[in-house]
Amino acid sequence: MERENKRNYLIGTVEIALANSFVGLNIGINKYLVEKASVLQLLELRYLFGTLILAFFSLFLKKKFTFYLTEERFDARNWLLYLLMALSGGVLFNLIYMSGIDRTTATSVGVISSAIPTLIAIFSFFILRQSLKQIHFICVLLVVIGVIVLNLSANQLNSSYNYKSSYDVFIGNCIVFLAMIPEALFTILAKLIKVKVCPVVSGLIINFINMLVCLPFLFFTEAKITFFALDASIWIFSFFIGLFNGALFYTFYNRGIAKIDSQTAAIMTGMVPISSALFGIIFLREPFYFNTVIGIVCVLTSIYIGVRFGESSKVILTRRVRQSLK
Length: 326
Known about the structure:
Transmembrane segments: 9-33, 45-61, 81-100, 106-128, 135-154, 169-190, 197-220, 232-253, 265-283, 289-310
InterPro entries: AA-Vitamin_Transporters, EamA_dom, EmrE-like
Domain EamA: 16-151, 171-305
Helix content: over 70%
Oligomer: single chain
Subcellular location: Cell membrane
Largest sheet: 2 strands, antiparallel
Keywords: Cell membrane, Membrane, Transmembrane, Transmembrane helix
């Protein structure tokens, strides 16, 4: 039994790592697309493709189209949590970060996303009532140092990318950082839902919800919808975003989060800055300054110490759970 639990834990860790790698790829691809179409158009296309892809898997590759894996069903509270989870990791996260990504680089976005593990740890303390350890404060310090060093390269980015100003790059980094808040809440909300559901069908519903939410805003803000006038490359890349970050992300994440704890899931988000930085440097030919190296080292160090010393770290704060009087 113990061996089986360890095996499931390892599989869950790999699944979460893969899911977060897809987020990093999403950052890099959107950095390329955001200059060619509006943010709402890109979001609608990615959720449309994500819905269609998962509908195909659900209807044609599964014998039974089912949402629940057990006899237990969602109550009103679970449906509310599920809706908030879908929107926080979907429209809210993507709308905010895509509004700032055109002001900075995919590498910078990846490094800033290293704040997610710390945010998850903080939210876990306040919402899930998990202990806050000394190691979390060290990780906070490393993240802050990494972001500060990253912003020191603003002048270099300005000369390389012809941005308006160093201040413009700084604002872009701040906007991207704000996007990490709903992304971190996605993990917390997922852990609050105890009813087991089918990962593929769950991903389908989440993509469909976000597609419906984006649609009225798209028609309201776009005077003339010109989807079919978009370049073919936008459709192709949007399909791959829908496949990797829409379909596969939610499938692997929903499978993995059921097998591991929120703190391990937080550590695995370190795959986001790594995959994003590699994509930006290799495919987008973004500059790789010494400041970027320091920022990435801070990220990798925070991940390592979180994994290595997380269990043995001293507990600093613990939330007491009030016992109900019988």
